[in-house]
Amino acid sequence: METIGFGFWNWVALVLYLLLMLCIGAFFTKRAGKDTDSFFTASGRLPAWVVGFSIYATTLSAITFMSTPEKSFLTDWSYIAGNVAIVAIIPLLIYFYIPFFKKLRVTSAYEYLEARFNPAVRVIGSLLFVLFHLGRIAIVIYLPTLAITSVSDINPYVVASLVGLLCIVYTFLGGFEGVVWSDFIQGVILLGGALVIIIMGITHIDGGFSSVVSDAVENKKLLSIDNWKLNATAAAIPIIFLGSVFNNLQQYTASQDVVQRYQASESLKETSQSIWTNGLLAIISAPLFYGMGTVLYVFYAQHQTLPENFNTSSIVPYFILTEMPPFVAGLLIAAIFAAAQSTISSSLNSIAACLSVDIKQRFFGKKSEKAEVRFARFATVAVGLVGMLISLYLIAADSNDIWDLFLLITGLFGVPIAGIFAVGIFTKRTHGVGVIVGIIVAVIASYFLQGIGGAGSPFYVSILAFVIAFVVAYVASLIIPQPKKDIAGLTIFDKHGEVTYQSKQH
């Protein structure tokens, strides 16, 4: 396919955005370096609305901006059930999960696992998170690289290195507070970019908005009765919704990058407000991102200007660079960078938190606050470079179908841990050895389920991974004898009780 020159004014817009991100990191450098509490949780001083925006930007990011429009361009809006699932679990989070994290005042989500079970479960949960997010960093560096370089004349290795290194620098400088405020700006750019693409697309379509609606309905590009049939060729909304519930439980209860944000506000009320802000943004943004794909489908159906053998993963940047005026196109490409960076920076900071709190401090002791911040910053750089190298491998291997790859990785490494958090909170008889058995069985089962016909769907894998981890952990705990452990205040049966656990980090 013939590539498009990026152009001087597009470079100007992109460089201005990148400089803004660096400035945010630099602005919070001194405050972030004060102590580990500042570097990892901003000492709980962030307003609820900006934390909610940060959760939204972190959980959606580049995968939303690139893959969601591609899904609706190729198929329909059935995956919107995943956005509804986010709102559906919010009451569950506020009533059952978040009070435990707030009560323990944990920096790492996996401190709860030690309090409830034992140190081994904490380490396993933390390391599985680190592995999962190393893969996630690589994927979300790879996505914008693919988006830009497949339709322009820029070297993909240069773009991937630029995205990765810039994220490392401003996360290194600004810590958690810099990450959250940059998430807010990136989220605004993300939503604004989607809206501009929809408006510009509609203005280029003969018949405007009415043509978009009529063509989409005629070609079943929105939702149809087929989406509700479990044996249909179209994606089944009930399975997508249920699978997304378990994927989101992983994200909001067992993933450090989100749980870390529960400590960024002082009170449970403020944390609840941030979760509802995130849910509202997820619902508002869903029509934008799915609408983007539908508008682009109608536009290219009318204009027939897509090159032969075109890779639809690049449909959004191709439209931007071929149909948008200079500088505006650069700002919209910056939105793709913003989508990637909001996820990468959050992953870097949260992985550094896990390595610092769950490994270094837990087993080797805690030194001065300045020394701990230095270690956290070193971890940020090391992890960022590893993730960037994996992304360069993905480029060299010319990997495709990243959306399903990401969901499969989530099911394999992430969702079993969500099952373990659930069995810890909702049962009293489960113990550490039983939980480890549950994790091992769930991960192995998830791996083999991926290749078995319809059961290999990422959403089926997520559902089964959660259920297997929960059930096996509980049953194994009933069979395998273990000394009784004090779990006062750590289950839903004693939610308001005092916790006897003390974090061993000193």
From TrEMBL:
It comes from the Bacteria. The chain crosses the membrane at residues 6-28, 48-67, 79-98, 119-142, 154-173, 185-205, 228-246, 279-300, 327-355, 375-396, 402-426, 433-453, 459-480. Keywords: Cell membrane, Ion transport, Membrane, Sodium, Sodium transport, Transmembrane, Transmembrane helix, Transport. GO terms for cellular component: plasma membrane. It is found in: Cell membrane. GO terms for molecular function: symporter activity. It is a multi-pass membrane protein. GO terms for biological process: sodium ion transport. The keyword Ion transport applies. The keyword Cell membrane applies. Belongs to the sodium:solute symporter (SSF) (TC 2.A.21) family. This is Sodium:solute symporter family protein. It comes from Staphylococcus muscae. The gene is sglT.
